[in-house]
Known about the structure:
The structure holds two protein chains of two kinds.
Chain A: H1 6-9, H2 13-27, H3 36-53, H4 62-80, H5 86-102, H6 107-123, H7 131-136, H8 138-151, H9 160-184, H10 213-217, E1 223-229, E2 240-246, E3 248-249, E4 254-255, E5 268-269, E6 275-281, E7 295-296, E8 302-304, E9 310-312, E10 320-326, E11 331-332, H11 339-343, H12 353-365, H13 369-382, E12 386-387, H14 398-406, E13 408-409, H15 411-424, E14 429-436, E15 439-441, E16 446-450, E17 454-462, E18 466-470, H16 472-476, H17 478-482, H18 485-488, H19 510-531, H20 535-546, H21 551-574, H22 582-597, H23 608-618, H24 623-639, H25 646-664
Parallel strand pairs in A: 12-13
Antiparallel strand pairs in A: 1-6, 1-16, 2-14, 3-4, 5-11, 6-10, 7-10, 8-9, 14-17, 15-16, 17-18
Helix pairs in contact in A: 2-6, 2-8, 3-5, 4-5, 5-6, 6-8, 8-9, 12-15, 14-15, 20-21, 22-25, 23-24, 24-25
Chain B: H1 2-15, H2 20-31, E1 36-39, H3 46-57, E2 61-65, H4 72-76, E3 77-82, E4 87-92, E5 99-103, H5 110-122, E6 124-127, E7 130-133, E8 139-144, H6 157-160, E9 165-167, H7 174-182, H8 186-192, H9 199-210, H10 216-231, H11 241-257, H12 265-276, H13 293-302
Parallel strand pairs in B: 1-8, 1-9, 2-5, 5-8
Antiparallel strand pairs in B: 3-4, 6-7
Helix pairs in contact in B: 1-3, 2-11, 3-8, 9-11, 11-12, 12-13
Amino acid sequence: MSKKPAMEQAIPRASLTWLLVAQFLVILPHLGHLPLWISALWIACAYWRIQVYRMRARFPSALVKAALMVGTIAGVYLSRGGLVGLDAAVVLLVAAFILKLVEVRTRRDALVLIYLGFFTVLTRYLFDSEILTAAFSLLPVAGLLSALVGLQHSGVVVRPWSTLKLAMTLMLQAVPLMLVLFLFFPRLGPLWSLPQPSERGVTGLSDSMAPGEIAELSRSGGLAFRASFDDPVPARNQLYWRALTFDRFDGRRWTQTPQGFAAASPDWQAVGDPVRYSVIMERSAKPWLFALDVAQSDDDAIRRKSDFRLERTRPVERTFFYRATSWIDARLEPESPSAAVRRALQLPATGEPRARGWAQELRRQYSDDRALAEAVLRQFREQPYVYTLRPPTLEGDAIDAFLFDTRRGFCEHYAGAMTFVLRAANIPARVVTGYQGGELNTAGNYLQVRQFDAHAWVEYWIEGAGWVRADPTFQVAPDRIERGLEEAVSGEQSFLEGDPFSPLRYRHLGWINTLRLQWDELNYGWQRWVLDYQAEQQGSFLQRIMGHSDKTTLIGIVLLGGLVVLGALAIWIIKPWRRRLAPLDRAFSQFERLLQKEGVQRLPAEGPRTYAARAAQALPAAANEIRGFSRAYEQQCYETDDAHTQPLSDALRALRRSLGKGATR
Amino acid sequence: MRTKLSDCLQAVNDVLLGKDQQVRLALTCVLAKGHLLIEDLPGMGKTTLSHALAKVLGLGFQRIQFTSDLLPGDILGTSVFDKNSGQFVFHPGPIFSELVLADEINRATPKSQSALLEAMEEGQVTIEGATRPLPDPFFVIATQNPISSGGTFILPDSQLDRFLMRLSLGYPAKAAERALLLGESRRDILPRMSTVLDREALSLLQDQVAHVRVSDALVDYVLRLVEATRTQPQFALGLSPRASLALLGASRAWALLEGRDYVIPEDVQAVLPAVVAHRLRERTDQGAGNGSGALVRWLLTEVPAI
């Protein structure tokens, strides 16, 4: 029978109020990826708990609790198709967080719920870490803190605002500590890899290309990456951000030949001045990066593949920062034809007779490869081809139908058709996908590249010159390259038509555009200075302010300094020199432990003499020794000015002997 | 000297049967130079206790019966014109005695109550411009009946605070009552009682109380108790520093009575209910300090003694 003191029991009203508010705020940002029934569960549980507080309902019985738990787990299993994985785990966590509410009886339970809430707030960052998410998470944290503060209040009416005020003060006081920790706390690499949310919902370039797919992607205004240049931004028609090349064609779909990780690095010749820039890439769940030709990065985890693209060893599962240097006019594989060049002649055995016929005809007319390619481009420019986001669907010999019948297509139609014709004329060629252009944020002097900037173009190979870039889309719709997609398709009103509320649609309204660009700049700064403040940036920051060279020593010094400061603070708060009686206390607690083993427990407010008397009565065999200790303790603790522990240890030893004898007897 | 103290206790206990603890506390109160408030129904032995104490300690005794028409002058005394000398002559009131029993103090008007309470606090009275010291020792036992409250003036918190202790005698145990019924009339015993302590011995003892040793550890315990009343939510108001001084003083006197020259936590616990109960009020209780028993019990069971 454990008798709890009365104050342990109930949860104060202020605390319960804030607990409910905080729970709502914790769950709110998760709503987007929670099944709908979770919200219903929360409302039901909150209502139940309020009714319990008003004494209109009872706490759930063990049976009901078990049923609720099993039901919830089954619900998560059904709606997420399993219990493993980040997504399901977070749903389960939120469900547990909700269910715990109805069985919160004592302060201890409430504490568990509050700590669970803090953890749930953190899990939100697994899904995104934008500035709004971070700012919003201050709200649930304030609510949870208020609940924690309210828990310490009495059960008597306390206005919830005073609780909130105290919690806010606490948060404000924590700000300097937060800044110090942010700046100096060492960034350790993850000890284990976190399972990431499923690929679902990540838009971006895929590892193959079929007609219509990039047009589909161009409906999205989502951010692909931001790039800021050390020098002035290159001209718009130079901004071809290479992501992938496709050298295999099966009659409908362009794919890439699988290549070993250790494929030979292609040779190239740097021409002109290098362009230096840094890229902050949004999560793509794919390993390839975006860079101008021909790019090079110092990062060990980034390597250049045989088709000159950059790839990371792991997929980009969170916002990723990298620096690169590019030589825009470099010559790519100018000398001997490599395996990549040989692969760039592959064609399906049959199909597209008209395109092949046209290629043969061109071959007869032009012996020079470059002239032939120019002729293809001229064809696109001079004939009535249309650049459109709504290309007609093509069946059968799609390239033939596009080239000679419909003549309406998006960049992948043009790039695919041109590559096919060049290959049919025995010129090595391949499709390159990536992004073209981007929007310059003049406020921050950086480039934002969005999904609708996705593009496909052609590279063909000429002995001596290497891979030459050709963009058939430029021939059809020069606006696409010069001024962006919105201008290029302005005639058909198809820009972002699936997303009427995107601020990108209202770029022509001056103030909205300014607001949008400023907001984006804020986000960019958040990315750049907060999220990407990782080990390397921290090291260079410390180097800058302390003028020291070695990063590890610096971090060590900072850590050591922090420990010294904290230690001094602890000593100052605890004041060990004031605890003159500590040895006596220690002796007494040994005495207590001895008697406790014999089943005589001291009550919290029991004085030493009363306790000894009770113990002596319970253990008559050791009564004298118990009284002896009590007398000695009294003497040292209350009677004399200068306390000695020797009599106490003597008395303890005697007691121990006596108790031991009793046990063996 | 110590034996004399136990003789005192023995003598009073012979008269007031079965009230060992209360008698001991009352004597503690005298030793600590505090005043005593006894709350009980009529006929429980309040007057007997006061008489016996006065007798045993060799103190002059006066009793003032408080009524609603009692005037301050009736307590303090008045100047009367003497025809023979042609001057005003001061006739001291009943307050000018060493042990004053103020019976049913809550029946008098606040004006008369405060005349007494001021005298208790100051140790002197000022009448018609002349300050007259009260005798030393000066000890007041006030009684009030908490049950029949019709036509009474409840003592305010600030005045309750002037009493070092509040006791209630309670019904005697069966054996004690049997002895009472079979024995001699109390009224007959009292005049025969002999004085055990004289004035000098008493003031010597009172001085000794101040020298009873209080260690840091014990002060910490008192501070913990006081702190608990100030921070725990169930207490409407915390104990004042005057209360913590009173608690420590009473604990010292109790320790002396126990024959020790140092205080242990058990001493504090022994006097705690009598010293603090009338100074505490539960937050939910809007009345005048009744029902604080639960608070005192809480202090005695929850505040760590070590």
